[in-house]
Design brief:
binds coenzyme A, about 220 residues, about 35% helix, 3-stranded antiparallel beta sheet, alpha+beta, Ribosomal Protein L22, Chain A
């Protein structure tokens, strides 16, 4: 499993214009629809990370590939079902994870006011655990769980169609439980949580256990 990490502050306005022809036609058109400049840069950088990974892993150039989407919009590489990747962005950071089986990644800057998200995001057990934490630890706890859950949801491709407050991990047994009214479904999943910086949490979710290689030397 590889994780590419880029910082959008590396991409100035002129650099953005210079890099624009490097992305696919579909991405180019999507970027034009974003109103905010940081959204455009995050979208551009995300695809550039995928293109770099495709080149390194498959030896293919941009004009030799195209993207499809599965489930609720999860992007996949057309004709290469064994090439698994996923992208996430938050504030200044863009992450792209690749693995040998379906992968989901999430990066999130610290959720500053967790209270309004508690019941939406946490199971009853997690809510009780959070209640017992000192105020200074709550933001980190919520952000960590949010990232774990989103990385799982992105691995499956179901995205936010799965209610976050029904998902609970057991890190010791590498399982995730989906706590539906009709009963609990348990699945195997491995979470890797790279330390990115003090201001962000990140999680990568896979069905198989793989060592992580982090690549930060991204030069645009
Ligand atoms: C996938 C999803 C959870 C991403 O949430 P997010 O926190 O805003 O975004 P992240 O930065 O972590 O990830 C965005 C990237 O995930 C990827 N992605 C998009 N849909 C995905 C899906 N269903 N599964 C996995 N990855 C997905 C894309 O690469 C996207 O980057 P891009 O927008 O630049 O192409 C969210 O968009 C979602 O639930 N989508 C599914 C569709 C859906 O159910 N929509 C609800 C409509 S009511």
């Amino acid at each position: 499993m590889k994780l590419y990490i880029a910082d959008i502050r590396q991409v100035s306005k002129s650099k953005y214009e210079e890099l624009l022809p490097d992305v696919s036609r579909e991405r180019y058109e999507r970027l034009l629809q974003y109103h905010q400049e940081p959204d455009r840069v995050r979208g551009l950088v995300g695809e550039l990370l995928i293109l770099r990974a495709v080149k390194e892993e498959l030896g293919l150039e941009k004009n030799q590939i195209s993207f499809d989407s599965v489930e609720r919009g999860k992007p996949v590489l057309h004709g290469y079902p064994e090439f698994h990747f996923n992208v996430s962005h938050s504030k200044d950071l863009v992450l792209c994870a690749i693995g040998s089986s379906p992968v989901g990644v999430d990066v999130q800057s610290l959720i500053i006011k967790p209270d309004r998200l508690i019941s939406k995001c946490l199971t009853e057990k997690e809510q009780a655990a959070m209640h017992n934490l000192p105020d200074g630890k709550k933001s980190e706890y919520m952000t960590t769980l949010w990232c774990r859950k989103e990385s799982y949801m992105k691995m499956t491709g179901k995205g936010l169609a799965l209610p976050m407050n029904l998902i609970e991990f057991d890190l010791l047994s590498n399982t995730v439980a989906l706590l539906y009214d009709a009963g609990m479904i348990q699945e195997v999943c491995y979470l890797t949580e790279p330390q990115i910086s003090d201001e962000y949490k990140a999680s990568i979710c896979m069905r198989t256990k793989e060592d992580l290689v982090v690549i930060r030397d991204i030069n645009f």
